[in-house]
Amino acid sequence: MIISMKRHATKAEIEEVCDRIREFGYKVHSSEGEERVIIGAVGIGDVTACLESLEAMPQVEKAVRISAPYKFVSREFRPAKSQIRADGIEIGGDEFVVMAGPCSVESEAQIIETARFVAQHGASFLRGGAFKPRTSPYEFQGLQLDGLKLLYQAKQETGLGIITEVMSDADVGLVAEYADILQIGARNMQNFALLKALGKINRPVMLKRGMSSTIKELLMSAEYIVAHGNSNVILCERGIRTFETETRNTCDITAIAVLNELSHLPVILDPSHATGKRSLVPALGRAGVAIGADGLIVEVHPHPEKALSDGAQSLSFSQFEAMMRDLAPYIALWKQARVAEAVTA
Amino acid sequence: MIISMKRHATKAEIEEVCDRIREFGYKVHSSEGEERVIIGAVGIGDVTACLESLEAMPQVEKAVRISAPYKFVSREFRPAKSQIRADGIEIGGDEFVVMAGPCSVESEAQIIETARFVAQHGASFLRGGAFKPRTSPYEFQGLQLDGLKLLYQAKQETGLGIITEVMSDADVGLVAEYADILQIGARNMQNFALLKALGKINRPVMLKRGMSSTIKELLMSAEYIVAHGNSNVILCERGIRTFETETRNTCDITAIAVLNELSHLPVILDPSHATGKRSLVPALGRAGVAIGADGLIVEVHPHPEKALSDGAQSLSFSQFEAMMRDLAPYIALWKQARVAEAVTA
Amino acid sequence: MIISMKRHATKAEIEEVCDRIREFGYKVHSSEGEERVIIGAVGIGDVTACLESLEAMPQVEKAVRISAPYKFVSREFRPAKSQIRADGIEIGGDEFVVMAGPCSVESEAQIIETARFVAQHGASFLRGGAFKPRTSPYEFQGLQLDGLKLLYQAKQETGLGIITEVMSDADVGLVAEYADILQIGARNMQNFALLKALGKINRPVMLKRGMSSTIKELLMSAEYIVAHGNSNVILCERGIRTFETETRNTCDITAIAVLNELSHLPVILDPSHATGKRSLVPALGRAGVAIGADGLIVEVHPHPEKALSDGAQSLSFSQFEAMMRDLAPYIALWKQARVAEAVTA
Amino acid sequence: MIISMKRHATKAEIEEVCDRIREFGYKVHSSEGEERVIIGAVGIGDVTACLESLEAMPQVEKAVRISAPYKFVSREFRPAKSQIRADGIEIGGDEFVVMAGPCSVESEAQIIETARFVAQHGASFLRGGAFKPRTSPYEFQGLQLDGLKLLYQAKQETGLGIITEVMSDADVGLVAEYADILQIGARNMQNFALLKALGKINRPVMLKRGMSSTIKELLMSAEYIVAHGNSNVILCERGIRTFETETRNTCDITAIAVLNELSHLPVILDPSHATGKRSLVPALGRAGVAIGADGLIVEVHPHPEKALSDGAQSLSFSQFEAMMRDLAPYIALWKQARVAEAVTA
Lengths: 345, 345, 345, 345
Prior knowledge:
The structure is a homotetramer of 345-residue chains. The first copy, chain A, has 345 residues and is of the alpha/beta class.
């Protein structure tokens, strides 16, 4: 932290500030300028509380944090990119990973049919919601345990890994029995009880960025899971909320490049939720490959217009097939770049 | 819903759309214009899924919802304002309610001292966090059960009602034993597992608006609690996230007037979180009284500069006293207006 | 500015940074901590360019501005609130000022009728657009010179002062002939050619906050006008753009309190544009009085449902009258507070 | 437009609404449902005023626009993509266009040196600001006429086309003498006096999206220029303002795909302003190529750390060269796609 005192702060006031900083466990070094005194604080402590406390002191002009508030998820802590294994597949490595499937698991026919199709066309994970977060209590809430069982059945028939959402700390154990990756939805990114529970399991977690969460807050939520014991965290950009209404959300695609600079964790792009319109999904998917995401998670449904949720943004089978064909040369360039990076590193 | 077809939609395509609407349980009436056909859909069903399904059909130009997606919380359902009783105090009635106390319960001395002071100066509820949602895993997480016990002790010594946050469905029962009102924080406004659990208890709930939640989504989350059995819901505006950084959040004060039009539920303003700066709290508090909030929830700490959280936005004792004095004539006008409304209604 | 160097910066690198700071005209004083060196820069120069230049240097960790980027409009420069006189009426003084009238000047009958009514019910300025900024080229663009003449006629008949918008530096001279206050719309808050032209005239200017402008940027735009020679600037909060769609804009009412802390310039609230719905205007107007705005600017139309623009947010005559009656006791409290402040200061 | 009446609207009230719609020049056709009456309005008129007028009528539940508010810039008006020629170069055609150069023209040496370098490495236009919009009146405001002359000199020495910003309608003629493309900055996107002036010249215009402007508003501003006589408009996505602070703006990359669906006008991406950090520019540039932008505009400076503006986001010469090398295979894929589209169309 750097603390800048007001112009006419007295010696006694400066000493009071230094004492406060020391109470929070930091070492102090101060510097007298012509106009004002500047104080540096070094060490480990509850930075936020310390900053707030200092800003509450009348003689303090400004208190600024210098170092990042997260540690284990940072590139400083681990300079090389992390590879995370789920069901034998590596995420964050040399293969671009595609996760595909319906928004909700609706029936055996629907999920098995979809699983077979996406497996044949390049997906390595099947997505599908058994527990569904819905804005309205009157909307379809998911098949729950039955949905998990259908996903497991699809896995056995196709060999695909399973990724599915968990919404409550009470369900973490149950979902972890069936899923290869536990997905945390945007609305739960700061459900800290849930994050702590995820820290205690032995399964990879994909953490979606909250609708109005900063990149730093996303990393802090990932830090929660890692600090509580589970270092297998995958990040996901799925669009943020802005004033624009042509798309369901606004994809902050640059966040992928920023996350690659700040963190060693893999990053997945969700072009379905980011756009909310199927016609835009393939174009945004290409952009995601080009900017260096580690994979895509895409909604696919045998009959999008009959889907119980997210019909407007789900690709049909033929659209998914066309998208995968369209992406192929971009994925080839992506692989070249990954191999080149590995050689350099 | 109103569905507008594309210009050159054929009769068969129009019929297909009508069939889809009927599958979702609605009645259909269509109207042929010079340029395009417009279809109306009436009834009760999963509106969101139906709209998404229709928008996924190529011949549909636009599908628009007409009626509000919530029911029990609406003014249409209950035209008169609701009064909610907690610990014998009425919220939403003829008394302006002040809830005050520290961000976190830190110690016996701190909470008892604060409770006594705010009780003497016009508060009827004591606020204080025992379970704390913190962005960083390294920040103070609250005293938890010990905090709840200290709140209960403060209640017994002062007669104040207790409002405190619950963060997980697993803790709802425990917190309900100690608190008169359960507070749901902004980050949990769409924690649907928690909302459902709150529907099953016999205690009032104060639901804070999410940082990037619309007014409609706030009402939908309240509808969750009511639809699951608990109609004692209080709403709270605490600022939303925007690009502005001079304040911690941007107080959407108009939301209070909008909520009063759309819903019968009481609305509380939190000027502490809305501003993040204690110097702004009294001015925003006045505005809250003037616009017709049913009460305020305010952070007060015996030594704000030593607080373990939210020091910068907490009022000191003398500042709280001054604010209450400053508010008094505005609250007197507020009461006159309430009484006048009651006479008119 | 405070510049924090990276951990392992060498002496040569530190010296290079100090040289760069000196090139921008600042004095340097540096301080060696245990972990890193911190450099302070004092003086007057192009702060933004200097900060950007420093952040472009690889050995710099962070460069932070300490003092505000504006000067003449700040409370530091002028601790007492400014009173600005227009047509003999003081804004920022002991009288709460109401500006009222239609969005657009449409006809002689409309503007004269409105002027008479609002003059009788407490307004001291007539608002009305002669030059209209419209999102679409196909919308009504205003009566232009004819509109200005009608406003002038209304002034002569009622004695009201005139406030009207100017949209181009080319029109500043013309509008200044007819208007007592020149209004700058939200879309032109950073039209720097226009701001410079306004600096050269001898008429008060009311500067509306841009839809996505920060409070700091609003003050910087006011600084443009003052720095170019015209110190008679009035600020106006009219709502900012957020994700919320229930209201046309989101009123950042706290901005009024923030502006009162940071600047000596008067601040007006526009509850009509801030809400976009007439039913919400009176409630927000009360909040504006309570938080300490210096006045309101409100849209009033003899027949809102026939207005050529902004019909949905315009008050009818009887609604304006009711609002003024409703506001009266709040304005009485406002005056008491102003007089008390004057005594204290 | 579609107008939905309130449930218990009387025949007389419905007729009143129909009359109002006809007054605005539309034809009416109404349809009686079981619950409410729905009215359709067809024709050409001032849609916004009509909608606002209708929403101001008490018996109207909702009034919704169906067709887009712009015409000439839409794909419906012109299904094939437009190619715009500037200085002999086609934008929107089969060649990916790169515009590069410094934020501000600072000196002869700086601009000539930069022009030569970017010309050698694949740019076809030189960018450089002579008139600079700066938030602060104390920042460098550009070399103005001298800057224009230096740009012209650079053009003669290198053969590059020139793109530079114009900030006021008064300067449009002057800038058009020197520039091949006139750039409109984000802050002026709704400077309607300027847009009208641009409609009257015979030079292409590049219109940057406003910081908080919707895609629809961007198209409406383009419509202004076209409706006033100049159909040579190029659109530019440069990031929007959100709550995220890791980047200077948030690049709404999906807007490029949306604009390609809605409009025939070419779209350029500005990854420099969208990110504000040079390390992120190449990655975002790749994403821009992949999603189908027609070109990039990039800030390049011989000594970014000495730049008078935007140093932090400017590429050095070697970084620009590396970026162009990195982009080459993506541009090759882009060309294949363009040729394939042309064959299909």
